[in-house]
Design a protein that fits this description.
Nucleotide Exchange Factor Grpe, Chain A, domain 2, three-stranded antiparallel sheet, elongated
């Protein structure tokens, strides 16, 4: 059996809205409408500002990522060169020992050519030796391993270099190990 819903009673019906009298609440409706427009305009301004900031942040991120990528490429062979530099040092030591034996030896001449090829290769890859002898001591490029009194070299100047330092493009790869003059006739302990 099918149930039918009873007709709504008169008291349950919602009466239609009564039109407002002029001057009554129309000012309130306009104020509400203006508040709504102001609120929407505020939200629009806030979202526009957020979008502009997000776009600027993204542009900065792209620039930073490109700069880091270029820097990574520029210094990509740094670890290879760091490992190759001590080999060059040992090769130079062997060359100086061979020179003491005989400067006219074919082995000495061959080692000298190989060293030139090796140093040319390093230079092509951005490695620059740091020349320190006779220059003012610079702790940014040199590591002082000792001080010696010297009548001929002013205080603070490099007397000799015990290990060559290298710069890779604009960065320090390895500081030069140097002995610095402590001035005329004085030792560092005095």
């Amino acid at each position: 059996m099918k149930k039918t819903s009873p007709e709504p009673r008169e008291e349950d019906k919602i009466p239609p809205p009564v039109p407002a009298e002029p001057g009554d609440s129309s000012a309130g409706a306009e104020a509400t409408e203006e508040d709504l427009v102001a609120s929407l305009q505020s939200d629009l301004d806030r979202f526009r500002d957020l979008a502009l900031r997000t776009q600027a942040d993204f542009e900065n991120y792209k620039k930073r990522a490109a700069r880091e990528r270029d820097e990574g490429i520029k210094y990509a062979n740094r670890t290879l060169l760091e490992r190759l530099v001590p080999i060059v040092d040992n090769f130079e030591l062997g060359l100086s020992a061979a020179r003491e034996e005989s400067k006219h030896s074919p082995i000495y001449s061959g080692m000298k050519m190989v060293l030139k090829q090796l140093t040319d290769f390093l230079t092509e890859n951005g490695l620059e030796p740091i020349d320190a002898v006779g220059k003012q001591f610079d702790p940014n490029l040199q590591e002082a391993i000792g001080h010696e009194p010297n009548d001929e070299v002013p205080e603070g100047r490099v007397i000799r270099q015990t290990r060559r330092g290298y710069r890779l493009k604009d960065r320090l790869l390895r500081p030069a190990a140097v002995v610095v003059s402590s001035g005329a006739g004085r030792s560092r302990d005095e």
